[in-house]
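Tutorial, part two.
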Amino acid sequence: MKGVRIIYGPQSCRAHLLESVKSAEVGFWGMAGRSRPPHISNRLLTESLRLIAKGIKARFILEIDRENLKRVGKISAVAEVAHYQPIPVFMYGADDKSVAVCLAEGPIIRPSQTAQLVTNYRPTVQVMRQFFDILWRESTPFVTREAILLGHRPPSPSSRITRGRKEAYTQTEITMNSAKDSIRIYIPTRFGPVRILKALSGPLLRAHRRGVKIRAICKSSDENAREVKTLVKFAEVRHTDNPIGFSMGIVDDSDAAIYYTDPDSSELDSHTDYTIRMTSKEGIRHLGNLFEALWQESMPIED
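Running the prediction step on this input gives:
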């Protein structure tokens, strides 16, 4: 893939972050979970915010709780901030020119473990920016989150977030059984096709017999070749060489969800998985647009 490189080590990653902020002409954007990567020091954060305060429009999606509320409050003084959870990825971008994603299979304990994938390949940057924009529209503004944490207003319903793989498949089966026109699936993890056929082959076959158009994007490999071959019998399937860090499912234009899945598990139950259901028509529409962008980038499985 063109325009891709891996940066290793805390010093290189810090330097790239500062350079990205300096190079932003229109806007800088990013997202991070409750615990920021250890190479993001207070000094680096202060310098980045100083540069942003000079006139860059910046937006950040963060997991905000009582422990980091004061620190996030300083960020909100110079940038737009919103709350969402869970956020299992550290990612940032400058305009639509480049994007960096922290690479880690588990929690980063020491700064020396830091590594980042950086790309300026425009189609990929646009896809990741669309993902950010979708979550931004679904996020809670900082002032609202602050009021909730301080007890000034009741918390909003959290039913849109489900934990557990079995629960996700149960809800997805119900949704697929009601599909009338289309089902779109993005399952780029190596065991994605394996799990889908184990858990949802029945609903998918019934939808196919009803005339529902099924499209799936996956990363075909030796580990899932048999399942992909089966999937081709009732769905149009494409292969992606450049998977992004989540899965998604869209039924008709009325239901959609983002899945954060353990990539190394082929079992039907995992308590580390999260499902985020889109709660607005606008969010569903934007997730559909994101799927179409990924579809255009992917390769017909026959090739």
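The domain at 4-149 is CATH 3.30.870.10 (Endonuclease; Chain A). In part three we will examine how such features are distributed along the chain.
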